[in-house]
Model the fold of this input.
Amino acid sequence: MPANVPEGGIWLSTRPADMRKSFDGLAALVRNELGGDVVSGGWFVFADRRRTMMKIIGFGPGGCWIWSQRLEQGLFAVPFGPRGAAAPLSRTDLQALLDGVDFAAVRRRKRYARPRVAGPGKISGIR
Done:
């Protein structure tokens, strides 16, 4: 899995996906069900109905890529929900999900979050 954090964020589909889909099929799910765009720079994470396989689709400098993982034992703790919903994930959340951590059983402690700063050439907070 690429080591950098994507500019467009990491998004987990809360609806099971057909793992027979490849580049075009997953890109269509991103566009039609999640309302996103693969070329936005984000990573889009999908799991199958049985929660034993996961695919991540993203777009890099060389084009579109897919990363997949299939479990030989156990399940991914993917929280399935309404159709077309996507849950934002941090890099840490994604790694925990891939490592088998169940978010329902985890209690999050308060952490410092650096305030967001406007991008280059933008002034934030001034009208």
The mean pLDDT is 83. The helical segments are 23-32, 91-99.
